[in-house]
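Pilot study result, target chain (205 residues):
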Amino acid sequence: MTRLTGTMKLVVLLLYGAGLRLRECLELRVKDVDFDRGEIVVRQGKGHKDRVTMLPSAAKVPLSSHLNVVRRQHHDDLAHGFGRVVLPYAIGRKYVTAAADWRWQCVFPAARICRDPQFGPPSRYHVHESVVQRAVADAVRHAGVTKRVSCHTFRHACATHLIEDGYDIRTVQELLGHRDVSTTMIYTHVLNRGGLGVRSPADRL
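Predicted structure:
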């Protein structure tokens, strides 16, 4: 992760620190991040279910700074007659002014305004998944890592490390949004690593 900078580093920090899928991370809205409670609300995750996961303390300062920049960009867009965001489902019809509301803006907005008529008036969408995937692939290559690493690898690492830290399976299941606990159970392999993963009692002396 040290090879990544700026927005891409922040995205990866949330993939790992909050156990988010890439799509879930990029579709976050400003209103879904609660700094006071240290929570992130994932809307319509896999299986079309909402869930609450942790906002890493390590992400609070950089994320707050990032959102300050995004807010300035949003105000600039509004001043130039834009400032709209693509809204999910029927939200735009139900809440007419929501598209320009700061709370509904994407946490990770795209660099360019989308003018595709299928999305209605010119709007700012979120960063495309391929942008993050490419940045991670480049960082992995430059770091000389030989194992296969993708954006999803950071989510796997989150689950593995939570279990290593002693959190129970049901808690990890809820945080990561696994529909079936058997999916979460896969990560218990870290508890059975053989002799090399066991601390010798002699080391307690």
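One observation from the pilot: The chain has a mean pLDDT of 87. A full batch analysis is planned for the follow-on phase.
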